[in-house]
Specification:
By secondary structure, the protein is an alpha+beta fold. It has ten helices and 17 strands.
Length: 364
């Protein structure tokens, strides 16, 4: 079975964080087991907490810890989430978002992001944004400064310019090197269904790296908000937009139920409106983990035949992260290939990784 690989693993060989898993606060409600944040806090994708050596510059930071500190200082959940993901957008070695994100097939980095305020029921997003390092902040400005929800391409760039965001080259020497490797191995035509021509054994060619960052925040008073940011599927067709900037797919937040987001194959997530599905499942009483698993079941039930293996299971992975209005949280993935099914958490007990649920196990 062909496996998608996570970008940091491909470029640097560092998979999951080495910090020991912290014991979550577990409790039972109505016959189900849930985890609950210890005061204001947030959850997110595993790359939102990088506590170990392995970074090329031995850099260590925790986006979820930064976001939680902003919550405690009184910032709204959506603003806190944006501050958190900005750390990864500014990191040239985090190749799934912002500066250093892996480019499209023409070698151009195109960024997508969305934000949502669960209290005001407002959202903002940008897609196919070039030359701007912090798309999540621009998405927040779309929400706060316009009567629109989603700006794309040249319009998004002009909007960012008007607000004073500087244009920068997002393609780093390392991301350019990997793109050149892919380009050298591709054939005269690039058949996106099936193996590319050229006979390369490079994993970057056969399985384009994935990378996205999501953070959902809870202020301890029932208010939620979140942000999702990405450079999308590596080597994508120019203009391709995945689930990250699609409200209801890569992100959804509502104080009446909770907040959810995703990382992984965006096209499959869009088809089930994943984040919205999860929030609605929490609204009717399912725990965040149960809600994530329900959305994953819908993904696998609707999966195209060409994207199934010999056993009928998806050949790709997809991860969901969710927290509800009471501070309960959870995560689930189809296989758990991303960072060994880990996700990031931060609350009164500090930043850490915890293990999420896995829909299907697979032999190593």
């Amino acid at each position: 079975m062909s496996k998608q690989i996570e970008r940091r693993t491909f470029l640097h060989g560092s998979a999951a964080a080495a910090a020991a898993w912290a014991s979550p606060r577990l409790f039972a409600i109505g016959g189900r087991v849930a985890r609950k944040l210890d005061g204001p806090g947030c959850i997110g994708s595993a790359n939102a907490h990088l506590p170990k050596p392995g970074h090329p510059k031995q850099q260590s930071y925790s986006a979820v810890e930064t976001a939680t500190s902003r919550l405690r200082a009184g910032d709204r959940p959506v603003d806190s989430a944006v501050v958190g993901v900005t750390l990864l957008e500014d990191d040239p070695y985090e190749t799934g978002v912002g500066l250093g994100g892996l480019p499209n097939e023409e070698g151009v980095v195109e960024l997508d992001a969305s934000v949502m305020d669960g209290t005001e029921h407002r959202a903002g997003a940008v897609a196919a944004l070039r030359n701007i390092q912090n798309p999540a902040a621009v998405a927040l400005a779309v929400m706060r400064k316009t009567n629109h929800l989603l700006l794309v391409g040249e319009g998004a760039l002009r909007f960012a310019r008007d607000l004073g965001y500087p244009e920068v080259s997002l393609l780093t020497p390392e991301s350019r090197r990997v793109w050149l490797e892919w380009r050298a191995a591709r054939g005269a035509t690039d058949n996106w269904i099936g193996e590319p021509e050229g006979g390369s054994t490079s994993s970057a060619v056969k399985s384009p790296p994935l990378g996205t960052t999501h953070i959902s925040c809870w202020d301890g008073k029932g208010h939620v908000g979140g942000a999702t940011t990405t450079s999308g599927l590596a080597w994508k067709v120019p203009g391709r937009v995945g689930d990250s900037p699609v409200i209801g797919a890569g992100l959804f937040a509502d104080d009446g139920a909770g907040s959810a987001g995703s990382t992984g194959r965006g096209e499959s997530n869009i088809l089930v409106a994943g984040a919205h599905t999860i929030v609605e499942q929490m609204r009717i009483g399912k725990s965040p983990e149960e809600a994530c698993l329900e959305a994953l079941r819908r993904v696998t039930d609707q999966c195209e035949r060409r994207l199934r293996d010999a056993s009928g299971r998806p050949t790709f992975d997809l991860a969901y992260y969710a927290l509800n209005k009471d501070g309960e949280y959870g995560s689930a993935m189809i296989y758990g290939r991303y960072h060994n099914a880990a996700f990031a958490v931060c609350d009164g007990k500090g930043p850490r990784h915890e293990s999420g649920a896995v829909l299907f196990s697979e032999s190593k």
